[in-house]
Amino acid sequence: MPSDPLVAQHVLEFPGGYTRTTGPVIGRFLSELRGRRIVGVRTKEGKVLVPPLEYDPATGEPVTGEFVEVGPAGTVTTWAFVPEPGAGHPLDRPFAWALIKLDGADTALVHAVDAGDPKRLRAGMRVWPVWNDHPTGQITDISCFVPEVTDIVANVRTEYRLQAGGALRVFLEGIERGVFLGGRCDTCAKVYVPYRLTCPECGNAIPETLELPDTGTITTFAINNLPDPRAPEVPFVSAYILLDGSDIPVIALIGDVPAHEVRQGMRVRAVWVPEPERTASMANIRWFAPTGEPDVEQP
Amino acid sequence: MGNRCAVIGIGQTRYRSRRTDMSIAGLVREAALRALEDAGLTFKDIDAVVIGKAPDLFEGVMMPESYLADALGAAGKPMMRVHTAGSVGGSTALVGASLIQGGVHERVLVVAFEKQSESNATWALSTHLPFSASLVVGAGGYFAPHIREYMRTSGAPDHIGTLVAVKDRLNALKNPYAHLRIPGIDRAMVESTPMLWEPIRYLETCPSSDGACAMVLSSEGAITGTPAWVHGTAMRSEPIFRAGRDTVSPQAGKDCAADVYRQAGISDPRRDIDVAEVYVPFSWYEPMWLENLGFAAEGEGWKLTESGATALDGDIPWNASGGVLSSNPIGASGLIRFAEAALQVRGTAGEHQVDGARTALGHAYGGGSQFFAMWIVGRDKP
User: Fold this and answer.
1) What local confidence, expressed as pLDDT, does residue B277 receive?
2) What's B56's domain CATH number?
3) Mind listing the GO molecular function terms for this protein (chain B) (predicted)?
4) Mean pLDDT throughout A42-70?
5) What are the distances in angstroms from CA A249 to CA A171, A214, A239, A241, A254?
6) Is B170 part of a structural domain of the chain?
7) Which of B30, B50, B118, B346 is most buried, with most CB under 10 Å away?
């Protein structure tokens, strides 16, 4: 854009900056800031003014010489959010100008609050100062105030090496070959699948495996609509399936049928992944799909 | 049953989604101090502390009882933790009571809690081990098929679950500690909410709550304040995988009820019990437990619900407090049932008091309906 000869920048800046004499009251406040303490001054009425003033605005009387350490934490009384900070602002990211009543003070101090999200800000919020690395005796010795620590993130993690042993290994080796292995309890004659070493009813050993067909009947099921990153895409049907010849249902996914057409008593067969893709894992079974046989009446 | 035992102090926190104002220690202490205040006692008067909570994975704090000893004034005293999944609150009260009944201690503080906001119970209950298929998502995913089976075998109409969801939330409006407060809740509102785990709708499930509950249990000789007398205590469990297991009405629940009724001299629970606080985290579990606990014949529980018998003004109010459907700090939920039963027979339940309640059932279940804990408390000395 061609420059307009009648538009010019003009800067007024006193060389080196103005010298400002603080006087004893403000000087004490700034000296304390340099020492990373915040003080107020007490008025004759007993109020603590923060930041201190030399004369009590309520009465016009000089304040007392008594300085009181306040804070360092305080409470936000009101605030205005600055979504786009300008060049002269203390922070280069969205922040709030807030009135902060420091603990022990009777008046509020204006300062910047770095709370990130404006939704976090509210009157009554507890805030703490963040100090500048090199305090020199200016209000900017406090870089800003930040919300009080109210929670921490505890990254708890345990890592196990899981080894399929005993019965589970036997069962999964069967799954790798494309068969369900169960076992019959000698005492109560119940057939358990997956294969297990002992009967949960009698406590007796189940010494031998029994090969079961991959067909069965849905006893009951749920239609899951609550998404979970570790589960199949919703809606999915998780069903209890009583494999033919067994006495305890296994839980499995139902596929190749709309969720609302699944029925209790429906006949289903396992759909296996192609042989080259098989591993010793339940991932070998994509799901169970209806066989088209008539439903089995449920007791 | 051993020596006589009584509840002499009850304390609860307000139940809500997030208690961001306090730590777990602060939470259990709030409940404990209220229970002590109710009994007119201090930590000095307590001989032993029993803590209950659900799986450690819920908050990621292992052996939280060790960390909580200071908050509960347990330093230098016997202190133990109970863990029986969702039934743990009930089991905690029963372990505490057994220490009194066995003559070991004079006064025992029992406390149970959960701070669900620290993580996510559905995540913690769905750990998805290697080699297995990842199909069960949370407690709802587990219980939905068993509710479907109940609906099929009993022939209950679809709206029964809705009735319980409304009734318990209306009761919650009378309980100052309840988490869910839904003024104007009705069947249409419940039915308009989505199916999470069909046949369970959103408003037919319990909330996730932060909270704690505490009780002071006392021997007969150490009673202060108003006692609720323990008339019977029972715990049962059964294997989750057992051929022929009735997952709708588990044998362990029936056995547990029969045992506690025998001790308390109850022959007809619907007639002999005035009010029941029963662990109903999904609305359909009210008719299911009505049958399992012998309040109705098999297949008939839903008729009791439908008739209004379990409402606050019915002949056998269930969950006058609003129940688990209204407040669910999981580990504490069972203890809250036991405590609410005691409040009723002491006549101190406030706005949700059942007039003239003399005998009450507290019930909790957990895991895949495999752990049960129950007690009967009464106004009269057994």
Assistant:
1) 98
2) 3.40.47.10
3) acyltransferase activity, transferring groups other than amino-acyl groups
4) 91
5) 15, 12, 9, 5, 14
6) no
7) B50
- Alpha-carbon span B277 to B324, nearest angstrom: 9
Q: Where are the alpha helices (DSSP H) in chain B?
A: 24-39, 64-68, 88-101, 121-125, 138-154, 160-172, 187-191, 251-264, 269-272, 285-292, 301-307, 330-346
Residue B108 maps to a domain: yes
Do residues A200 and B241 lie in contact, with contact meaning Cβ atoms separated by under 8 Å? yes
Query: What confidence tier does B270 reach under pLDDT thresholds 50, 70, 90?
Result: very high
Closest CA to A100 of A118, A116, A124, A119: A124
B367 and chain A: CB distance < 8 Å anywhere? no
Structural domain harbouring B16? 5-121+208-222
| Span A141-173, pLDDT tens digits | 999 999 999 889 988 888 989 888 889 999 999
pLDDT at B294 (0 to 100)? 98
Distance CA A68, CA A74 (A): 15
Chain A hits for B19, CB-CB cut-off 8 Å, are none
Number of domains in chain B: 1
A139: contact with B, CB 8 A cutoff: no
Q: What amino acid is encoded at B56 in this protein? A: D
A230 HSE (CA, 13 A, CB side)? 16
How do strand B359-366 and strand B275-277 relate by DSSP bridges? parallel
Residue B295 lies in a domain: no
Q: Is A225 on the interface with B (CB under 8 A)?
A: yes
Locate the chain B residue with the closest alpha carbon to A282: B132
Instruction: Judge whether residue B348 has pLDDT over 60.
Output: yes
| Residue located via tokens 């009010």 | B275
Q: Cβ of B135 under 8 Å from any chain A Cβ?
A: yes
Q: Is residue B37 part of a domain?
A: yes
Burial of B172 (0-12, 13-18, 19+ CB in 10 A): buried
Contact criterion met (CB < 8 Å) for B131 and A253: no
A208, containing H or E segment: none
- Nearest residue to A271 via CA among A260, A259, A294, A255: A255
**Phi-psi region for residue A197, left (φ > 0), alpha (ψ -120 to 50) or beta?**
alpha
CA–chain centroid gap for B367, Å, is 13
Q: Which A residues, 231 through 260, put their C-beta within 8 Å of a C-beta on chain B? A: 231-232, 235-236, 238-240, 247-248, 251-253
- Confidence (pLDDT) at B10: 98
Q: What is the mean pLDDT of chain B?
A: 95
The span from the CA of B219 to the CA of B47, in Å, is: 11
Q: What confidence tens digit (pLDDT) does each residue in B23-53 have?
A: 999 999 999 999 999 999 999 999 999 999 9
Give how far Cα B272 sits from Cα of B2, B122, B173, B285, B353, Å: 23, 38, 27, 22, 18
β-strands A142-147, A126-131: how paired?
antiparallel
Which residue shows structure tokens 């021997």? B219
